[in-house]
Amino acid sequence: MIYSPKTFISLVIIALFTSFFSVKSDAQDLAILKYKGGGDWYSNPTALPNLIKFCNENIETEINTKPETVEAGSTDIFQYPLLHMTGHGNVFFNEEEAQNLKLYLESGGFLHIDDNYGMKDYVVKELKKVFPNQELKELPKSHEIFNTAFKFAQGLPKIHEHDGKRPQALVLFYKSRLVVLLTLESDLGDGWEDQEVHNDPEDVRLKALQMGANIVKYAFEN
Predict the structure, then answer these.
(1) How many domains does the chain have?
(2) How many Å is the Cα radius of gyration of the chain?
């Protein structure tokens, strides 16, 4: 791949940064990933605060109760072991952003993408820029992420109907470590939101929060 001079310089700066720093192994914070393309990366504003509160109360985390927002191309992402990404529409990573995310994931980071309905095709295409030689694969129900703090014998829970299809957890690995989790036909984030936003029953919200806690625990410990 041939890069423009500006892009090449940016990649050199990122590479130098990550040669001295990796994702903080002892960090217990998460951030919202802001991306270009026009998609609503800011959707579900009450979701992460509620998930953080649940985690701090149930799985002994000490996460900052107000999640930060970081941009895909910023070195700030290396401060967080877990990035959360959501939305309904278009997603776009330029060359610098894709390379930055790749280095972040290879350095110990974890990216959870929760399709809030309508972002799948866009984000799948952009992930090919990050790991061009990989295809997303479905995670088996037996995987550790479904069996950490809370047990999900059937795998990813169904929270919202969307197209009425079964929920799927699609993943990418780096050197056998799970680094990208794309949750589809589930909409965990809607389940994490304040109850009055979607009027979900408490048992459904609890399943969403428990699955979210599993993701957080897995990302922090692996």
Answers:
(1) 1
(2) 17
pTM for the structure as a whole: 0.89
Each residue of 121-146: pLDDT tens digit?
999 999 999 999 999 999 999 999 99
Rounded CA gap, 46 and 34, in Å?
Answer: 16
Residue-by-residue DSSP string for 28-70: --EEEEE-BSS--TT--TTHHHHHHHHHHHHS-----SS-EEE
Per-residue H/E/C for 73-90: CCHHHHHCCEEEEEECCC
Return all residues near 197 (Cβ < 8 A) that are at least 6 apart.
Answer: 46, 190
Closest CA to 134 of 93, 94, 102, 88: 102
Owner of token pair 């914070």: 29
- Contact indicator for 22, 108 with CB cutoff of 8 Å: yes
- Which residue range is the domain that position 61 belongs to? 5-221
Are the CB atoms for 93 and 128 separated by under 8 Å? no
* CATH number of the domain to which 105 belongs: 3.40.50.12140
